[in-house]
Amino acid sequence: MDIKQVAKDTAKVLTSYFTYQALRTVLAQLSENDPPQALWLHSFSSRHSIQDGEAFLLSLLQEKQELAFRLMTVRQHLAEEVADFLPEMVRASIQQSNMEHRRQHLERMTQLTISDPPARSEQTDSES
Fold first, then answer.
1. Which of 8, 47, 92, 99 is 20 to 30 A off residue 59, Cα-Cα?
2. Residue 44: Cβ within 10 Å count
3. Contact of 76 with 68, CB cutoff 8 Å
4. Which residue has the higher pLDDT, 84 or 47?
5. What is the pTM of this model?
6. Distance (Å, rounded) from C-alpha 41 to C-alpha 64?
């Protein structure tokens, strides 16, 4: 396992996720302040995949530079706000999730299937 490559891939995914969150934030702001611009950006985002945030921004830069700069500013702000909390939150979340999966698995493994015991009246009838 190449830890550095895992870190690079994770950073790329997070960068794209911050781009997505920035898009949502900017769309919400534009919906209130500039509905035609919000409609344009929504239409643009439906035509261009946000899956790769960098490719999305490059396409946006070619069509509406001011919106691309705004998205870049918002995603940078989001990253700065979240970066300090993220490592510990990810570790804690994974640890909690793993513990819950293990607990559920152990419960499934240890469940006993108890067949219904014979009815009490049948036992007393046969004993008489």
1. 8
2. 16
3. no
4. 47
5. 0.76
6. 9
To which residue do tokens 């995914």 refer?
Answer: 13
Which residues, in sequence order, are CB contacts of 56 under 8 Å at separation 6+? 16, 19, 23, 45, 48, 49, 50
**Per-residue pLDDT tens over the stretch 67-93:** 999 999 999 999 999 988 998 999 999
Rg (CA), the chain: 27
Residues with Cβ within 8 Å of 82's Cβ and at least 6 positions away in sequence, in order, are 18
Residues 6 or more apart in contact with residue 31 via CB below 8 angstroms: 38
DSSP state of 117: P
Superfamily of domain covering 3-84: Chaperonin-like RbcX (1.10.1200.210)
Percent of the chain at pLDDT exceeding 90: 77
Query: Can you give the pLDDT at residue 123?
Result: 54
The chain-wide mean pLDDT, for the chain, equals: 90
Q: How far apart are CA 53 and CA 55, in angstroms?
A: 6
